[in-house]
Amino acid sequence: MRSIAIYPSSVKAHNSHHAAGQGIRGVTTMTIAIIGTGNMGSGLARLLASKGIDVAIGHRDPAKAAALAAEIGPRAQGGGSEAAAKLADIVILAVNYGSAEEALKGAGDLTGKIVVDISNPITPDYKALTVGHTTSAAEEIQKLVPGARVVKAFNTIFSQLLPSEARGGREVQVFLAGDDEAAKEAVSGVVSSAGFAPVDAGPLSNARYLEPVGEINIHFGFFLGWGTSAAPAWIKAA
C-alpha cells in the first residue's frame, strides 16, 4: 500500500508536484473507499490504484463493484457500499447529487470518517443548478451525515481528465472546501498523490461558489466547444 502525503494547510498548489512522502510531514497510509461505479467513481478508482493506493469500491449492487475491482486489479476490491466504507477513513461519494442520500444510507455509519463530495447539483439538461445561493450540495450532504467531515473536491473537472496521460503533463487544479482542516489536509494528500494540484478554497460554505464553477465548466465543455479537457485554474497574475 502506498503512503499518501497529508499536507499542512500552508502548503500551496505549486508544491503539489512533490511525490508522496518526500520531505512532507504527516505521511500516513490508508485505503480509500469509493462509493459509485460511474465515470467519476470508476475513473478515480483506476487512477488511485495506478498510483499504488488501495481502493475499496462500493455499490448498491455489490456485483458491479466487484466486477470493476476485478478489472482494475489487485489494488482494488469491490462489494457493498457499507462493506467498502468500513475499510476506509476517507470515503469518496462518487454519485450524482440526486442519489447522494440513498448512497449515504447504504454506506452505513460514517461517524468520524471523511466524506468527499464530488457532485454538482445540476438539472437533467446540464444547464443549471438545482441548489445554490444560500446552501450547496456539499452542505446538504453534511446535514445528512452530521458525524462525518465533508470535504468538497473534484467537482470542477471532467472524468476524461482523470487518467494521467489525458493531462499531458499539465498541472490541473482541484479545489477543496471544508470546515475541518485535518480532513482537508488528508484529502489534499489524496489529490496530490493522484497527480493534481490541490488548492484550498476555504470553508465548506464556499462549495456554494465551487459548484457554479463546476457548472460553468460543463457549459465550456459541452455547449461552448471546449470539450472535456476544459478545467478551471486560479492563478496569481502578479
TrEMBL record:
GO terms for molecular function: oxidoreductase activity. It comes from the Bacteria. Gene3D superfamilies: NAD(P)-binding Rossmann-like Domain. The keyword Transferase does not apply. Pfam families: F420_oxidored (PF03807). Keywords: Oxidoreductase. Residues 31-121 form the Pyrroline-5-carboxylate reductase catalytic N-terminal domain. The keyword Oxidoreductase applies. PANTHER family: DUDULIN-RELATED, REDUCTASE. This is NADPH-dependent F420 reductase.
